[in-house]
Amino acid sequence: MTINNIRNEEFGSEESCVNCGSSQLKRELQRQAFQYGTGDTAVKLTAEMPVYTCLSCGYQFAGPEAEDARHEAVCRYLGVLTPQEIVAIREHGALTRSQFADLTRIGIASLKRWETGLLFQNAANDELVYLMVFPDNVARLRERDHHHQINLQSLSGAPPSQRTSRRRLRFRGRCLGGNETVVQQAMQWQLRVYA
Ligand SMILES: [Zn+2]
């Protein structure tokens, strides 16, 4: 085991030597490479791993945080939030794990696994967690009544996809009997108009 890129040193720790039991340990951060994935998709990543050297017997071993450091490096590689960031976002909203799970409808067990670095959240869940950093999004979810439908007519912005709008036009055409606005809108979007 070679030691390079030593960033800091700490003497004395709650850890004890796995070889002789001495608590006189020197802790160093060491940049180590590791492989993530298998086969063609395998990549080589690096992470700052804590390495302990026993001052009594000279034995060297990786600290228990090594796994966390590796997990964090993989999160960076995948472009998802790290466990620490997830906890920070949840605490920023002053939410307990259970409150956060209730609001987002993310399973509390999953949330716990992401926060403790046992599992990686998928990209969609990562986006949802990310949005929770904004207090107004938390407020919106708090106010959401799952038993009421969204008023689609109140939605504005870009035209919906062709498939959606065609379906909606057919529906409206029947209900509204050739509403002018709907026809004009349909021509603007170059859709077929159902009379
Ligand atoms: Zn030792």
Features:
195 residues, alpha+beta, 3 domains, four-stranded antiparallel β-sheet, 8 helices, disordered N terminus, disordered C terminus, binds zinc ion
How would you characterize this protein structure?
This protein has 195 residues and is α+β, with helices and mostly antiparallel strands. The chain folds into 3 domains: 9-63, no CATH class; 83-143, 434 Repressor (Amino-terminal Domain), CATH 1.10.260; 152-188. Helices cover 42% and strands 15% of the residues. It has 8 helices and 4 strands, in the order ββββαααααααα. Strands 1-2-3-4 form a 4-stranded antiparallel sheet, with helices on one face. A hairpin with a 6-residue loop joins β2 (25-36) and β3. The longest helix is centred in the C-terminal third of the chain and has 15 residues, at 162-176. The radius of gyration is 27 Å and the shape is elongated. The chain starts with 8 loop residues before the first strand and ends in a 7-residue tail after the last helix. 16% of the residues are buried. Zinc ion binds next to loops.
